[in-house]
Amino acid sequence: MDFSLSEEEKAIRETARTFIRKEVMPLEHEVLRRERNHQPSLDRSELRELQLKAKKFGFWGLSTPEEYGGMDLPAVMQSLIWTEIGRSFVPFRFGGEADNILFYANEEQKKEFLIPTIEGERISCFAITEPGAGSDAANIKLSARRDGDDWVLNGEKTFITNGNDADFAIVVAVTDREKGARGGGTTAFLVDREMGWRSEFIQTMGEGGPASLIFENVRVPSRNILGEIGQGFELGMQWIGKGRYTIPSHALGIAERALQMAIDYANTRETFGRPIGVNQAIQWMIADSETELEAARWLVLRAAWTVDQGMDPRHSSSMAKLYGAGMVNRVVDRVLQIHGGMGYTRELPVERWYRQVRLYRIFEGTDEMQRLILSRDLLRGYTMIGGHLA
Ligand SMILES: Cc1cc2nc3c(=O)[nH]c(=O)nc-3n(C[C@H](O)[C@H](O)[C@H](O)COP(=O)(O)OP(=O)(O)OC[C@H]3O[C@@H](n4cnc5c(N)ncnc54)[C@H](O)[C@@H]3O)c2cc1C
Which residues form the Acyl-CoA dehydrogenase/oxidase N-terminal domain (predicted)? Predict the structure, then answer.
């Protein structure tokens, strides 16, 4: 068994690391200052400027097919890059990307929605969650009623990332109540903000925040249906599926950086005349953190590898998401403890990570939903224990 990365993987990872170190990390001080003053961490033009710089470095559209100017990187390579991004808390991501399901758009829709999103001229958001339907997304109620060649949307979506900034939303709506979500009763619509939906900011414990989207008789033409009528829930599940290995990949980067900070602090901070790192209580926190980090790394890389092999990645991605999200929460908690009072201040990013990573156990499938998927696969015999080694 060979655990080493290929020369190409090492080279791309190194270039990404260099870009993050040279161009992104220098902004960290300013980002913390702004956030302490309740200002946005990075505005739209600053992010775009960074993304264009990254484009010159060769990073544009990590997952975007080459015909759209992207890199179309294998999942393992994307995972390695997301880990590098995670090493800085500046809310940066490489440009040239679009929601995976936007590639189902027809030619007209591609010109209107997909290409401008890839180019960074338009911002999208994806909306399935509702006040009455989160983990049980199949229970959504936002309705789309056909009226001539239009559809009229009524209802509310909630917790929508980018919902405040988005120019358009990909909205999963009920088009046939009788059929239910899994029976083809939902459809995805591309809905411009000008069509009349409005957003309301939701305060959270994290920086930035998602939004509620309110639809009151929002009229959408049939030509704005994404994919087929009845395909909404299926597209929604595909959208969520991608995050199951990118979220824990990002978590690895956060944990690596935070743990290194704790190690440096343990070697320099002195109590009772000696560095705190000489105490076994501190040493064990460091040892446990590295062990869990490595365990998460291999779960994440195997999930990404499974994608690259064209195998069904759902089971391994659920394990990576469940364990990776838990790992980063435990590591950041220990890192905060090692920093003592300093860890609790807003001088350092540690308390920021502590707030940020709590979300990782909730969105794109809670811990409980991942456990439900994993146990169901085993109980029904869809997956054998250790089956991936067969
Ligand atoms: C910051 C943020 C950004 C988000 N971004 C988006 C987005 O862009 N688009 C989007 O559509 N959604 C988004 N979401 C929504 C997110 O996916 C949901 O919050 C998540 O799926 C959980 O749903 P819920 O909050 O309704 O919790 P609920 O489903 O009400 O669950 C509450 C608790 O009960 C547990 N639970 C539920 N059912 C079971 C069960 N059967 N067995 C055991 N435990 C159970 C859950 O795990 C959870 O702990 C976002 C959420 C947040 C907080």
Answer: 6-121
